[in-house]
Structures are given as C-alpha cells and as structure tokens.
Amino acid sequence: MNQPANASENSRPPLSGGKALLLLFVLLVVAAVLAVTGVIPRLRARSELQTQTTQLATPTVIVDAPIQGSPVQELVLPGNMQAYTDSSIYARTNGYLKKWNFDIGAHVRKGQLLAVIESPEIDQQLAQAKADLATAEANAKNAKIQSARYQDLLKANAVSAQDTDTYTTQEKSTGTQVESAAANVQHYEQLVGFENVYAPFDGTVTLRNVDIGSLINEGAGTTAGSELFHLSDEHVLRVYVNVPQVYSVAVQPGVTATLTLGEFPGRTFTGNVVRTARAIDLTTRTLLVEVDVNNPKGELYPGAYAQVHFKIPTTRPSLVVPVSALMFRSEGLRVGIVQNNKARLVPVTIGQDDGKTAAIIEGLNADDAVVQNPPDSLIDGETVQVKQLKKSAPEPPDSGNAQGGGK
C-alpha cells in the first residue's frame, strides 16, 4: 500500500544547485530584513534613551554677570524721635489745685504760670515763722544792749567779769537764733512760692494730669507716681538709632542723615549725627547714635517712628548678586560660577545684604558667569547646561532700603 506514495516521492526531481543557492540567498535576505526592522530600532531607542538620561542628569543653570556695586551705599535703619528737652513737672508743696492756665497742645514760654496751688497751712506756717523771726530779732537786740552795758561797767569794776561773759555769750546765742529763724522764714517763703507752677523752658504741654480741686501731694502729683504737667521742647528733635557694629565706624558725628515717615509720603527731613554712645551694646551689638533734626514748624512729633537713611561711602569695591546665588555649605559660603560648562564653587565674602541682593567684596570677578539658581545638589566640577539670563540682575542693595549687616 505504501508503494504509490514512495513512488510519488521518488518521482520528484531533485533541486538543482542554482535553485538551492537562490533559496539560501532569499532566506538570508529575509533574515537581514527582519534584523534591520527589529534590532536597529531597538538600538536607536536605547541610544536616544541614554542621551535623554544624560541630558536630564545634567543640571540646567541660569548664569549672568554680577553688577558692579555703587561707591556709596544707603543704610536704612529705624529711629525713635524724642523731644530735645522733655520734662515731667511735679508739685513741691501740698494743697489743692486752685486753677490751671494751659491745656495739652498749648505752647508756653519759659516762666509762664501753668497752675496755682492753694496751701493755707503753708501760709500759716510762714506767718508763724515770721513772728518767730521778729521775736528772735528782739531778743538779740536786747542781748546786744546788755552785753555792751556790762562791758562798759566792767571797765569801771562795777560788775564781775563772769556776769559780763554771760551777757556776751547771750548776745552771740541770740544772734544765731535770728539766723535760724530767718532761714526758717526763707524755707516757708520758698514753699509758698511753689504754690505757683511755672514753665521751666519754652515748649508744648503734652500732658495735663490735674484739674481744679485736685488734691496735690508734694512731689507726687494727684497720685503716687503721677505728674501735674508734661512739657516738651520740640523745636529740635533727637532721633535715636541703633547702628549695627559693622557700620559703627562710618556713622560718626557730622554724617548727614535723611528721615522718611509714613505720614509724610514723598517728603524727607534732613538731620545730622551729633553724638554717639562710643560703646557697642553687648546685647544687640549696635552703636547708639543721636541724629538731631530741626523742627521749626512743629510738623514732627516726639515719640514718632521714622526711617533714617545714611549715605555711607564704601571702603572696598563690591560685586552685587542676588541672594538666591548664595550657597551655604558646611565648608562655608559659596557662589557657583561656570567655566567651560563646568561648575565651580568659589568661596566669597559678603558685605551688605538687604534680603534680595548681596554685595560680594571678595571672591568674584566682574566677568564671572554667576549661577543664579544653583541646585542644592550642585558640586564643584560638575558638568552643567548653561542658559543665559536675558534680564539683568536685581538692583544693587545700596540703591534700595538696606538693613545693614550680612548673612
């Protein structure tokens, strides 16, 4: 039964050598096409993936050149304004307030009567002291006459020397009693004089703490620790400023300062540094500075808050960078620059820092490409992709409101 099949197979003619080669070539071509369409795209995808990974791993940084710092920097600090002369006025005698002549806001001249205190007890004590003085003077006059009489009688041996010495001593004793009584009268006259309260200097009444009929206690006003009036001389105001230690040498007497206040937008007031404490406060590390400002129109009020602007010449040239360029590392403060697409972390020393920009006084060159946005992972020598900053860097700190000090 298998013979027909075998006969059929045996009847097929064998492939010739040329056809076998052609079939092999076709198979090779098919294999090459499959290799090209399968392996090469994979290789290409792998290469693209590697390129993208490398690009993503390389940080992109924005660089820009630093700005040349100004030769004069502006230091802005808060100041407290006080009257040139400021005084609390208390009573020097006891009694009741009879009247007052000036209320708050009134301008008074030196020697003007502010108030009158009624003190009947003091008046009576003064009258008694005057009577005692008159008695002492009469006794002294009589003692003087007796002493002179006995001295004449002693020359005629009409009286004893002992009696003469007694009357002489009595004359001296009554003389000192007169002096004591006179001093007592003067004391009560002064107390009576304190019934009138006068202005000790030209100024403005800023407080009236009494009214008619108020009980007045000597040295304590109406109640313990209070005062009758408060008087301020504001024709010149003292402005006290705490200057950081780093600027203490530059802010010295003679330096000009300008003041700005919120209630006077667009206006400035000029003053001068007149004195300093010449000592650094151990707690705040600041120097207390007094700036005097003329106030002829009385526009400025004692107790007000002001911003004090000092123009300070810089002693060293500086380059200004944004504070975002500063890198705080364990080895110290650093700024990143780019050289040949490589990051370099250079140590720097900063001067003024206003919170937005920082003045670099050492460590940078004017032509350095400073990294404006350094990532925290940036290391020295790392390859970076550079993107040039189109917009110029922020204004230097000396053209804004600087607070002094540095980071």
Automatic annotation (TrEMBL):
GO molecular function: efflux transmembrane transporter activity
Transmembrane regions: 20-40
Entry GO CC: efflux pump complex
Chain residue ranges for the region called Disordered: 387-407
Domain Multidrug resistance protein MdtA-like barrel-sandwich hybrid stretches: 88-221
InterPro entries (alphabetical): Beta-barrel_RND_2, MdtA-like_BSH, MdtA-like_HH, RND_pump_MFP, YknX-like_C
Matches recorded under SUPFAM superfamilies: HlyD-like secretion proteins (SSF111369)
Start and end residues of each YknX-like C-terminal permuted SH3-like domain: 319-386
Coiled-coil portions: 126-153
Domain named Multidrug resistance protein MdtA-like alpha-helical hairpin: residues: 125-186
Annotated CusB-like beta-barrel domain residues: 240-311
Keywords, ordered alphabetically: Coiled coil, Membrane, Transmembrane, Transmembrane helix
Cross-referenced PANTHER family: MULTIDRUG RESISTANCE PROTEIN MDTA, RAGD PROTEIN
Similarity annotation: Belongs to the membrane fusion protein (MFP) (TC 8.A.1) family.
Name recorded for this polypeptide: Efflux RND transporter periplasmic adaptor subunit
